[in-house]
Amino acid sequence: MEVQLRDLTKKEANLSILGGDIGILYIIQDVLLNSPSTEFAGVITRHPLTNDLWMRVVSS
């Protein structure tokens, strides 16, 4: 699995994950959403034919 930081600000991080498993990212998303300082955590498959996943996390 290769993780690249696409964009980083004071309250937001956008990651690109190559070769990862979306199931594990859903678990990470659930843990992040249980944190009171997390406003948003989302995971998408960039395209169904590629193994490129994107994750976005916004904190307060």
From TrEMBL:
Q: List keywords of the entry alphabetically.
A: DNA-directed RNA polymerase, Transcription
The answer to whether the entry has keyword Ubl conjugation is no
Q: Does the keyword Transcription apply?
A: yes
- GO BP, one example? DNA-templated transcription
List GO terms (cellular component aspect): DNA-directed RNA polymerase complex
Any one GO MF term held by the record is: protein dimerization activity
- Enumerate the InterPro entries for this protein: RBP11-like (IPR036603), RBP11-like_dimer (IPR009025)
Q: Where is the DNA-directed RNA polymerase RBP11-like dimerisation domain?
A: 13-58
What Gene3D superfamilies has UniProt attached to this entry?
Answer: RNA polymerase, RBP11-like subunit
Please report the name of this protein according to its UniProt entry.
DNA-directed RNA polymerase RBP11-like dimerisation domain-containing protein
Q: Which organism is it from?
A: marine metagenome
What lineage, starting at the top, does this entry show?
unclassified sequences, metagenomes, ecological metagenomes
